């Protein structure tokens, strides 16, 4: 124990980059910080790791407290350990990103936490190094979208190819040629066509699809490079 006592002690925190999809935009869950430093400024949702929990458990706890959701996609992005990142104390933060269905989260719980969904195209200035946390999380999301289908995390179980393309355009912040996207996504063999149509936008309608289970990884170049 004497060896431990001679070394500095630090706080360990987790910050959650909570991403959802709505109105054809990727959105980030933020809240105005309720305490100093930087009270009132925009912040990610986060907190300290408790004595008897792991960092993963702390992130899952914060996510449940904020959105009411459990067993959703959650992955550590990076550690942020600059000595002066928090002016109050030496705080090492582990950033996580989560993908959630906005239509399934607990809206009242989000309101209780004073949080808001904000389009990633219109983000305000964020405290500390939270902008960097978001940017690294977006890269992670783009990588994930390149080797697997994000529909199961961000879209309903059934979706049309148009809806899937709009999601990918929101993730990669660029437009895809509709014909090329359809051809290449179907060539991967990762979607199951359903005998149900969405007729809300045209009389002819568009078939619904769902992601096949146990599809493994797919080639990012075949999806995002046309």
Q: How many extended strands?
A: 9
What structural class results from the helix and strand content? alpha+beta
What's the CATH topology name of the largest domain? Nucleoside Triphosphate Pyrophosphohydrolase
Largest sheet, if any?
7 strands, mixed
How much helicity do the residues have?
A: 25-40%
CA-CA gap between termini: 59 Å
Helix and strand pattern: HEEEEHEEHEHHHHEEH
Strand content: 25-35%
How many DSSP helices?
8
Report the principal-axis shape: elongated
Low-confidence stretches: none
Class of the largest domain in CATH? Alpha Beta
Total domain units: 2
Structure description:
The protein has two domains: about 1-145, Nucleoside Triphosphate Pyrophosphohydrolase (Alpha-Beta Complex), CATH 3.90.79.10; about 150-225, Winged helix-like DNA-binding domain superfamily/Winged helix DNA-binding domain (Arc Repressor Mutant, subunit A, Orthogonal Bundle). Helix content is about 30%, strand content about 25%. The chain has helices at about 1-5, 55-65, 105-110, 130-145, 150-155, 160-170, 180-185, 220-225; strands spanning about 10-20, 25-30, 40-45, 45-50, 75-80, 90-100, 115-120, 190-200, 205-210. Strands 1, 2, 3, 4, 5, 6 and 7 form a seven-stranded mixed beta sheet that branches. A two-stranded antiparallel sheet has the order 8-9. A hairpin with a 2-residue loop joins strand 1 and strand 2 (about 25-30). The model has no long low-confidence stretch (mean pLDDT about 90).
């Amino acid at each position: 124990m004497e060896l431990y006592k001679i070394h500095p002690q630090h706080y360990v925190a987790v910050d959650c980059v909570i991403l959802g999809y709505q109105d054809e935009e990727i959105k980030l869950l933020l809240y105005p910080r309720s305490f100093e430093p930087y009270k009132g400024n925009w912040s990610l949702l986060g907190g300290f790791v408790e004595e008897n929990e792991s960092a993963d458990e702390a992130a899952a706890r914060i996510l449940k407290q904020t959105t009411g959701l459990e067993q959703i996609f959650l992955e550590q992005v990076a550690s942020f350990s600059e000595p002066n990142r928090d002016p109050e104390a030496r705080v090492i933060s582990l950033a996580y990103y989560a993908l959630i269905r906005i239509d399934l989260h607990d809206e009242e719980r989000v309101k209780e936490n004073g949080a808001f969904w904000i389009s990633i195209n219109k983000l305000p200035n964020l405290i500390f190094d939270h902008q960097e946390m978001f940017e690294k999380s977006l890269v992670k999301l783009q990588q994930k979208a390149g080797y697997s289908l994000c529909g199961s995390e961000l879209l309903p179980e059934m979706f049309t190819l148009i809806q899937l393309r709009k999601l990918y355009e929101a993730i990669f912040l660029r437009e895809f040629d509709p014909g090329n996207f359809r051809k290449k996504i179907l060539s991967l063999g990762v979607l199951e066509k359903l005998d149900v149509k969405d007729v809300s936008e045209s009389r002819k309608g568009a078939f619904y699809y769902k992601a096949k289970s146990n599809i493994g990884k797919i080639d990012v170049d075949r999806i995002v490079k046309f």
